[in-house]
């Protein structure tokens, strides 16, 4: 027998979507719901402006998550708590994702297509370091403001 929740369960493409059941800990974000719900909200927010400058030329509506990882991961941390970790990339940068208790999710993993990332034994990424560059902080604040508008 198929239950209603199985019938209406949308399939997502981001890493960890199947178990991304954590709920907001921040009062101002209670209306967001689970990371799947946040992903749905973010698909209307991610844009060329919020994309990291080095990836803007490749950003498209079809690859909305490109260049959005750190600012999205820290916004998710604001909402759900937990920690942000980074998968080391070949260019020396880190791809950020979230860990909340036993729940591991990466809202922007789609940008890598079929490439498999390793979500274990990665270094924690600190907000003070990741959001220190002014342009990145501005992109993060843009996401925060746009999400607040959607929640009103």
Helix residue percentage? 25-40%
Identify the overall geometry: globular
Write the H/E string, N to C. Answer: HHHEEEHH
Number of strands: 3
Please give the domain count. 1
Q: Hey, roughly how much beta strand do the residues contain?
A: 5-15%
Tell me the Rg in angstroms: 15 Å
Average of pLDDT: 93
Distance between the termini: 38 Å
Strand order of the largest sheet: 1-2-3
What structural class results from the helix and strand content?
Answer: alpha+beta
Counting DSSP H or I runs of 4 or more residues, the number of helices is 5
Biggest sheet character: 3 strands, antiparallel
Low-pLDDT residue spans: 1-7
Describe the structure.
- This protein is α+β, with helices and mostly antiparallel strands.
- The chain has one domain.
- It contains five helices and three strands; from the N terminus they run αααβββαα.
- A three-stranded antiparallel sheet has the order 1-2-3, with helices on one face.
- β2 and β3 (103-105) form a beta hairpin.
- The protein is globular, with a radius of gyration of 15 Å.
- The protein starts with a helix and ends with a helix.
């Amino acid at each position: 027998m198929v239950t209603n929740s199985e019938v209406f369960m949308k399939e997502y493409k981001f890493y960890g979507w199947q178990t991304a059941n954590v709920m907001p800990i921040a009062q101002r974000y209670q209306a967001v719901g689970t990371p799947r719900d946040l992903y749905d909200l973010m698909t209307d927010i991610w844009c060329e402006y919020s994309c990291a400058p080095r990836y803007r030329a490749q950003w498209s509506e079809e690859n909305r998550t490109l260049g959005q990882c750190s600012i999205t991961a820290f916004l998710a941390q604001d909402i759900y708590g937990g920690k942000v970790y980074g998968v080391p990339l070949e260019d020396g940068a880190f791809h950020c994702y979230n860990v909340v208790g036993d729940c591991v999710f990466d809202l922007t993993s789609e940008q890598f297509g079929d490439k498999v990332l390793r979500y274990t034994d990665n270094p924690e990424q600190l907000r003070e370091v990741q959001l220190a560059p002014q342009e990145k902080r501005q992109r993060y604040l843009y996401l925060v403001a746009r999400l607040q508008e959607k929640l009103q």
